[in-house]
Amino acid sequence: MTEFKSKTAKSVIPVSIKAPVDQVFLLASPVEEYKWIPGWKCNLIHCPNDRVELGTIFSEISSAPFLIGSFQGKTTWTVVMHDPESYKIHFRLDNKNSILVCKFKWMMIK
User: pTM here?
Assistant: First the structure.
């Protein structure tokens, strides 16, 4: 039996969007992403109000090439922290190769 060795990585990817932060924050939802991501498809597992909130769960295959290096696979996203007042969402991403936490934060740039 091989010993488990965890890996930690951190990546910060700044993106600038010319729109009010409160409107952009609402677009980070598996339902809203149909409106702005061409070809977006997901399986809603738990999304009671059609928007992101704590406990929202969905799966998708769009991120598979980036996260598991294959077009054959799905990633399940679970909201583990949701703070709309601070414009923060943390997702746990589960796929066949890894478990990771993605932390998103939106902010107003003047």
Answer: 0.83
Higher pLDDT, residue 89 or 99: 89
Three-class DSSP labels, the chain: CCCCCCCCCCCCCCCCCCCCHHHHHHCCCCCCHHHHCCCCCCEEEECCCCCCCCCCEEEECCCHHHHCCCCCCCEEEEEEEEECCCCEEEEEEECCCCEEEEEEECCCCC
CA end-to-end distance (rounded Å), the chain: 54
pLDDT at 46: 96
**What are residue 78's DSSP bridge partners?**
57, 92
C-beta neighbour count of 48 within 10 angstroms: 9
Residue 106, Cα to own-chain centre: how many angstroms? 13
Instruction: Return d(Cα 25, Cα 106) in angstroms, integer.
Output: 7
Q: What is the spatial distance between Cα 75 and Cα 58, in angstroms, rounded to a whole number?
A: 8
pLDDT in tens, 48-58: 888 899 999 99
